[in-house]
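Lecture 7, part 2: worked example. A protein chain together with NDP.
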Amino acid sequence: MDGAPGLLAGKRAIVTGGANPRGIGAAVAELFIAQGAAVAVLDRAYPEGAAAALAAGRVELHCDVSSAASCKAAIERAKAALGGIDVLVNNAGIVAATRIWDLPEDEFRRMVEVNLTGTYNITHAALPALLDSPRRPAIVNLGSTAALRGGGLLGGSHYAASKGGVISFTKALARELGPRGIRANCVAPGIIETDMTLGKFGENWEQELKQGIPLQRFGSPAEVAQAILFLASDLSSYSTGIVVDVNGGFHIH
Ligand code: NDP
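Predicted complex, written out as structure tokens:
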């Protein structure tokens, strides 16, 4: 993003699921800070504890997005540290490749609890602060190509359903919150090189998959972060309820 510094200058952002340094959430936090935002990174990997202070534009807070109570507590701490919330990125998520005939109810429930209910939990907890924001608030949710093409290569029906739910949730938020000044959009990544995918396909299948993608490669977390920055910033000020594909052409509508 050379030549366009400060796209989020003065904004206060929440990014969930950002503890993994090789993940999309970490890339989003890094790019947001470089673009002038103060960022609270929420992840279940961080230790539980008292409110932490901002350092170098970021604060790290424990949060299990599948727990409404944990989300409320984390959002309160984030608000105290940031002074408000203008941008929310619901990135935390899990994946599993279980086929339907092997898929037990508890695994289905867990997938939905983290990916879909987790998106609701954080959004609901952060909503009063977003409504109070005078800085053109925006929500960006993480969908997936899996939701658009009938399942993922690594994700089963429960993953696809949870991400399809996130996309529908986002569109409904756009309608409900647009009149209140909040935009809500989705990014749908294809195959991105993170711990969710790295080494999971095997050498031969990986090469075959890449040949089937028009851009002939997998994406990077930074490339997803750029699309998220677009939707979080005023660059997309007249867009709400949209799904931005970041998939190298892997799925073309
Ligand atoms: P990673 O597994 O690298 O990162 C996800 C992060 O979310 C991890 O830090 C993880 O912690 C955290 N997390 C998981 N469950 C919870 C929870 N209950 N509460 C709080 N944090 C949690 O994944 P990616 O960076 O690859 O994925 C980020 C998002 O992008 C996800 O929503 C994913 O579904 C989506 N996506 C990714 C694609 C890809 O190809 N990588 C493709 C399409 C969509 P922990 O490490 O402890 O599990």
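The domain at 12-246 is CATH 3.40.50.720 (Rossmann fold). Strands lie at 12-16, 38-43, 58-62, 87-90, 138-142, 183-189, 243-246. Keep this in mind for problem set question 3.
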